Amino acid sequence: MLGHRVINSALLIIFLWLLIFILPIWVFAIAVVAAVGLGLYEFLSMVSKKGIPIYRYFGIIIGCLIPITTYLQFRSSAEMEFVLITAVCFCVFLLQIARRKTEYALVGIATTFFGIFYIGWLFSFAIKLRMLPPLNMDGRFLVLYLLLVTKSGDIAAYFIGTFFGKHQLIPRISPKKSIEGAVAGCAVSFMVAIGFKSLLPDVSIIHICAIGLILSLVGQVGDLSESLIKRDCQVKDSGSLFLGLGGMLDLIDSLIFTTPIFYFYLRLIT
User: Strand pairing partners for 255?
Assistant: First the structure.
């Protein structure tokens, strides 16, 4: 499995490089929409195994509309996002009213809505980061910086935890995650944030340190959050799309939180 993980990781790195720097921006947007759709499918499939009445395809369609709307507007899409949220809330209740059974109605509504927000809305900030860069910086380098800082922490946490982890971090959520791995992940993310400051030339070293610290911690929380969901649904991986890596949700779990936080932080300091 380690070999499959390394090979697939290398292929993903090549694909991401092409996606960010070579292919047109609309291809990047399509990739984000595809990631949202697959992530939502995996999330809603896991939830459905618990017997919760969710609306899988409705949730996927609405979730994908959020990044599509973000891309098509070429500007802040806050108003349209709130329109979509209101429409989703209305439609989910309407679907539940039309359903014959009322058991677990509230759980089904809340879970469907949560999945759309958790994956569809939060990950759509990848398009905002790419298209609406603050400080007049190249959005491509912002996306690259985010990926380097976040995923380097994931990689370090996995390898250090696998080979040197002795003390469990939170065994009730993820028995295989260790304190050593978590500390290594945070430390590597922080060092990478500082080491690649050249990608954010207009950001001061103080803010770079703050970004590194915040993203390193948030990335670990994002990973644990998905582990909590999988633990509750009693599955090892969200899917099997990437051999050795798991599903799409396993791949983007840490980015789901770091992406909007990185975006808002850059907007805040400008």
Answer: none
Sketch the domain layout of the chain as residue ranges. Answer: 2-269
Alpha-helical runs (H) found in the chain: 2-17, 25-48, 56-73, 78-98, 105-115, 122-123, 125-131, 139-164, 179-195, 205-233, 248-269
Q: What is the DSSP letter of 199?
A: G
Residue 73, burial from CB neighbour count under 10 angstroms (0-12, 13-18, 19+): middle
User: Burial of 164 by CB count in 10 Å (0-12 exposed, 13-18 middle, 19+ buried)?
Assistant: exposed
Residue 142: its pLDDT value, please?
92
> Who contacts 93 (Cβ-Cβ below 8 Å, separation ≥6)?
109
- 242 in helix, strand or coil? strand
10-residue block means of pLDDT along the chain (270 residues)? Answer: 71 84 90 93 88 83 88 65 77 79 79 89 91 71 92 87 82 83 90 92 90 92 88 79 77 91 88
